[in-house]
Design brief:
The chain has one domain. 76% of the residues lie in helices and 0% in strands. It is built from five helices and no strands. Helix 2 crosses helix 3. The relative contact order is 0.05.
Amino acid sequence: MVFFGVAAALAILLTPERFQFTQRWIWLAGLIAFVIALPNIIWQVAVVRRIDLAARFPRRPARSRHRFHLLIALAEFIVMHGKNYYVAPAYPMLFAAGGAGFERIFALRFRWLKQAIAFLVVVSAVVLAAVVLPIL
């Protein structure tokens, strides 16, 4: 909506209708729209700050609650069918944390599974090459 509002304001400025900006009603309408949108803006800033804190301090035990907030925010967006790009900055952190966790588990307990997974990746690449290469 911000992009739409900026585009509308620029369009008005570039047309003979620019005199509308001299009247107080357009400024009052803009103020009312801003007050209505303010709770959502505050909420989005809070979510971005949570994600940012989780990105800067992913391994410190004192910051583990921020990772928990990140997972809760992600779960809320999934359950409420939120827009996927709202939590898009969190995906690389979640992938990295999951990859590090799996690596730790495989390195300690399932060493043989690394070779098995590598074998399955190579075999699936060979099998799927017949389908993928013509598309490329």
